[in-house]
Design goal:
- The radius of gyration is 22 Å and the shape is globular.
- The chain is 40% helix and 22% strand.
- The relative contact order is 0.15.
- The longest helix is centred in the N-terminal third of the chain and has 28 residues.
- The strands form 3 sheets. Strands 3, 4, 5, 6, 7, 10, 11, 12 and 13 form a 9-stranded mixed beta sheet that branches.
- By secondary structure, the chain is of the alpha/beta class.
- The protein is built from 9 helices and 13 strands.
Length: 297
């Protein structure tokens, strides 16, 4: 390639950053709500402007070239400074506020919300939390459109457009008795769960996405129960009735009498992670980062 005259597009820089973070052109395109060809063309133009290819493309994904490995950290730094400029301008120009609007996935346990409330009170001057519970799609839209300042969600999809930080994790348990229980024991091995029938909930809160990704990533067939539970409570009840097995974060168990065992992968507990996500250019970015630090601590 050779360097051409022309400006470097900020949008293309963000696309390149997203590809570097997700390792995939398609995942980066989904995160920005654009088609993959549109994103690929923007990055190709950027590479033309810069004078070299940033990524090696293959059916398995995208990895930085030697050229890209040198430039992509500079891309991160450039976008970080730009977002910091916008965030500070919004903070100075925006009305003073004492509240932080937080969106919470139904999968987030009450213990995490408790930590968030305590963390908000510890901020300089104290902050009032305004909580909203909604499914993943709604939380993400409200974050993008500025109706929420921060969302607490399961880590089930890449979010390269936003600042995000893992705030904790918890073990996943198997409720009910798997169909193939010949091994018995106090735990359920993921590799031995292929013949079990698994009850799922609608793919809106992140639990079904977590479950299907877990099985796919470990090449374990997912034998799905033909029906679908409407809530975690129904999921647990149906599993107790013997209709199939179900996965739940341990904090979501409602009944102490429910038969459940930890899910393990080669003896290691399987856990679901949760993260805090916020806009990099938010006028509350500094307070949000302090809040998330406090939640994590």
């Amino acid at each position: 390639m050779h360097v051409m005259n022309g400006r470097v597009s900020t949008e293309a820089l963000r696309y390149a950053q997203a590809v570097a973070q997700t390792g995939s052109f398609s995942a980066a395109a989904r995160s920005y709500g654009v088609t993959q060809p549109a994103l690929s063309n923007a990055i190709a133009t950027l590479e033309d402007r810069l004078g070299g290819e940033l990524f090696s493309r293959s059916p398995r994904g995208a990895t930085p070239t030697a050229f890209g490995a040198r430039l992509l950290p500079l891309v991160d730094r450039t976008l970080g400074e730009l977002d910091g400029l916008v965030a500070e301008a919004r903070r100075l120009a925006g009305p003073a506020t004492t509240s932080i609007r937080i969106g919470v996935s139904p999968l987030i346990g009450s213990h995490v919300v408790d930590r968030a409330c305590a963390a908000a009170a510890s901020l300089p001057g104290g902050r009032e939390l305004v909580l909203t519970e909604a499914d993943l799609a709604g939380l993400r839209v409200d974050l993008v459109e500025g109706r929420l300042d921060l969302i607490l969600v399961p880590s089930v999809e890449p979010l390269p457009r936003f600042e995000h930080r893992v705030i904790g994790s918890e073990p996943v348990v198997v409720v009910g008795t798997p169909d193939d229980d010949s091994h018995g024991g106090d735990v359920v091995e993921l590799a031995e769960a292929a013949d079990s029938r698994w009850i799922l909930v609608p793919d809106s809160c992140g639990l079904t996405r977590f479950t299907t990704s877990l099985f796919d990533d470990n090449a374990v067939p997912l034998n799905q129960y033909p029906g679908e539970a409407s809530s975690y409570r129904v999921l647990e009840q149906w599993a107790n009735l013997g209709l199939g097995a179900a996965l739940l974060p341990r904090s979501k168990l409602e009944s102490a009498s429910s038969a459940h065992r930890p899910l393990v992968d080669h003896g290691r507990p399987v856990e679901i992670s949760y993260e805090a996500v916020w806009r990099r250019d938010s006028g509350l970015a500094t307070d949000l980062a302090e809040l998330v630090d406090a939640i994590t601590a």
